[in-house]
Amino acid sequence: MDQVDLSRPLGRDGGWAEAEPPSGNAGHAELPVRPYDLLTLAGCHALRGVWALLGLRSASGVLRHYLRGTGSPYRVDAEALLALPAVRHAAEAQLERWRAEALARWRAGARAAAAYPADSGWRDVLITRRVSPDWWLALRCVEFRLTGTVRVAADGATVVDYRFAVHKAWNFDRGKSELGVPFTPFARLHETGLAREFPVTGEAFGHR
Questions:
Q1: What pTM was estimated for this model as a whole?
Q2: Inter-axis angle of helices 35-53 and 57-68, to 10 degrees?
Q3: Other CB atoms closer than 10 Å to residue 50's CB: what's the count?
Q4: pLDDT tens for residues 106-153?
Q5: Is the torsion defined by CA of 90, 94, 100, 104 positive or negative?
């Protein structure tokens, strides 16, 4: 039977204990609706339709959810996200770190079969247009957390079981911009109650 190491989880240093909180925008429906807010809303509905026609399903889906204004969590395909090169590279770097730390602990001990809990903490990864135009428009940046177990056999071979969790506080940050497009008019849709910010979630499991 494997010996279970109950000390501090592998790979925890450098990660955040909690996911990023929502932005500092005004609260939902705190500001009065202005005529240009209605123009922005109409433009967003048109844009969502264009994205859908272009096959940008992820981008269209999250924008539709924003415009529906429920504020409920929106679940994304974490396996599809994990397949993106930038996200996969970030996740694999954590798994390799787990293996290295597990072997270091194993070599310092009795070198019997052992199991080590692991936790990356929350970390972020940037998704660029080159990586995926669809996911760039949908998320731009996303937080992920890997939790799991590294098992080391008596001969030093390693096996990793992990859970890949995704989180993002989906919003338009007032005062920021992308490609010269200011986000404030879109943030006002939440602030005036015409749309609503929401959390993005998702999870995938793996065995390596």
A1: 0.91
A2: 150
A3: 10
A4: 999 888 999 999 999 999 999 999 999 999 999 999 999 999 999 999
A5: positive
